[in-house]
Each structure stands twice: as C-alpha cells, then as structure tokens.
Amino acid sequence: MNRIEAFKIITAEAASGELAFPTSIDVALKIQRALDDPECHMEAATTLVMGEPLLAARVVAIANSVAYNRSGQSISDVRIAVSRIGLRTLRTLATALATRQMAGAPKDPEIRAIAARLWEHTAHVAALAHVIARRVTHLDPEAAMFAGVVHEVGGFYLISRAAEFPGLLVGEPGEWVENAESEIGRAILTRLAVTDTVMQAIEAQWEGYLALPPVTLGDTLLLANDLAPVASPLYDSGTIRNGGSAAIIDSVIDAGTLSSILAESAAEVESLTEALRF
Questions:
Q1: Of the given ranges (37-46, 135-144, 230-239, 257-266), which has the lowest mean pLDDT?
Q2: Which of 130, 129, 100, 127 is nearest to 116 (CA)?
Q3: 65-80 b/e with 16+ CB inside 10 Å = b?
Q4: Do residues 47 and 173 share a domain?
Q5: 97 in the same domain as 31
Q6: Domain count, the chain
C-alpha cells in the first residue's frame, strides 16, 4: 500500500468518527472528561491527578513556573499546586498528556525522534502562546496555551498509525501532513471537546496567514508557531506567509517591539516550556 492510499484510509476513518487511540491515553482522557463535569470540585480533581504520577509532576512544575508562581515560593504538594493553577490549567495539562501520549510508543527510532521533536515544538508554541496572549494580543492566556497544546494533535495521531502503515511518514515534511490536517485534526479536536474559539484558532493556523499587528487567537497561535525555536518536523520550515520572522519580531506592539516584549518574558516562556516537557 502506498502513502496516498494509507492517507485515504486514515482520513476516511477520521471523517466517520473511527479514531484508534493508543490505550496509553485512556487515563489522561478520563481525567479530562472528569474535569469537564461542572460538578467536579478541587478535591476530586486533586485525587485524580495524584493517581497519575506523570501528570502530577507536570502540575507541580507548572505551579512553580514563573507564569504561576509570582511570589517565588516553590511548592511540592500536589493539592497546593492544583489550587494555585486552577481547574482550567489542570484540564490543559490533562489534554497535553493525552496529546503527547497519542503518538503511542513507536518502536522505530526515527519515528520516536519525530514524536519527541513534535512535542518539543508543541511545548514551545504553548508557552509562547500563553505569553503572547497576555502581553501582545491581550487575550485569554489559558485558552492560548490550550490551543498551543493541541494544535499538532493530528500529527501525533498519524505518528501512532505509522507502524500500521509503513512509509506513512516517509518523504518531504509537510507534503503528507497538509493533506491530513483538517480531516484528522478536526475529528480529534471534536473528540477532545475543544471550544469553537480554539477550533477556529487552529483552523486559522492551518490557513497560515498572520495579520500584523496580531489580534485574534488564531494570530496568537500563528505567531507562537512562527517564533518557536524548535520547528515542527511535519513542515519544511517555520516560515510564515506574510514576510517572515524578521518583519514580525520588529513589529511595534504597545509602543514597544515584539522582540523587547519577548526578551522581558524570556524567563516565563522558558519555565512554561520546561514544565510542559512530558
């Protein structure tokens, strides 16, 4: 079976709602669904997190990041960490874990490397989106970070199917992912119950046009994607279709340049990125 045939099968399955998720994401999805329940309170959420050590470690890491630890007082208690970051950020982290684990456990070292690089890119984009939303576009930073976490979810799903369809990821980056983004990505985002606002932002990122100055959540995601120091392995480059990074970094935002804003926020971006490294 050639790659085109494989894509047709996978996209047809996605379009009909047939998504074969690795069993490794079951716990993360269960936690995410529980957090979606408006009756879920802080103590119940804490109990769920403590039952998943990997998630618990990331919750504490996020709580100690510059973005959430303004007092500079480090903590190690999961209950305090959950209280500090709140249920919305906790849901983002549960979704981040599910997204990261969606690639499964590839046996092929080359595919494992693609999955690792894709998550490294994702962590940078999510961290940058959080800061850009707060400092540049003046939008909800939690929604922006969530959008960054899930913006490559279709790629992780394709990685999980690579063993079943040998050669699926062979070829020039971007050549195959472009054809699968909308059908597969949209199906998974629907299953993850993302909001219309986040869905529209990711669709704007698929279209690839960034307005300057950036205004929308889609602009925020596009800008974070372009400025991420680690490019997605699913594309030829991180360049954007409006003149490139040089023009963007020199853009004037609120009487300052984007470069100066990012320089001021470098510690925040670094700590968030580190905290998201599952």
A1: 230-239
A2: 100
A3: bbbbbeeeeeeeebbe
A4: no
A5: yes
A6: 2
Domain identity same for 194 and 277: yes
d(CA 245, CA 223): 9
Please say whether the beta carbons of 150 and 97 come within 8 A. no
List pLDDT tens digits, range 200-250: 999 998 888 888 788 999 999 999 998 999 998 877 544 444 444 545 666
Q: Are residues 8 and 78 in the same domain?
A: no
**56 in the same domain as 97:** yes
Segment (H or E) for 129: helix 109-132
Angle at 110 between CA 107 and CA 115, to 5 degrees: 80
Segment of 24-28, 124-128, 262-266 carrying the highest mean pLDDT: 124-128
- Token match 């983004």: residue? 181
Do residues 205 and 33 touch, judged by C-beta distance below 8 A?
no
pTM listed for this prediction: 0.91
| CA atoms 103, 105, 111, 115: torsion sign | positive
Residues 194 and 216 in one domain: yes
Q: How far apart are CA 232 and CA 177, in angstroms?
A: 11
Domain boundaries, position 54: 23-101
Distance CA 56, CA 266 (A): 25
Taking only the tens place, the pLDDT of each residue in 126-153 is: 999 999 999 999 999 999 999 999 999 9
Element at 273 (helix H, strand E): helix 266-275
Query: Are the C-beta atoms of residues 225 and 125 closer than 8 Å to each other?
Result: yes
Please identify, among 101, 120, 148, the residue that sits at the C-terminal boundary of a domain: 101
- Whether 268 has a pLDDT exceeding 70, the answer reads yes
